Amino acid sequence: MPRAIDGTKRKKRRQKLLKHAKGYWGRRSNLFRTAKDAVAKSLSYAYRDRRNKKRNFRALWITRISAACRQQDLSYSGFIHGLELAGIQINRKALSNLAIEDPNAFAALVGKAKEALGAAG
Length: 121
Known about the structure:
The protein is mostly helical and 121 residues long. It contains five helices and no strands.
């Protein structure tokens, strides 16, 4: 019995992979073998960067908080330590949004942190 080469399963598998490679430059979007390599690489980058995205956002929040703290004459590390001493638990994303959207509330938090640092030191 002859072997089926152009079966529908094979064609579907290849079409699905080439659909993933749509928009790639040059032969990577048309030829199965090169598209397969390109798609595998892109999926690994996507997996890696979904994790890196979390790091990048945390770094952005910390930078924003630090800039807002320096305007109030306090370092970032001092501010975070002061919040801990004051018993205030708020995450960095919320602090960053507060620093941008409501500077008065952020200044009040900085004041609390300074008080806690003064009482501890």
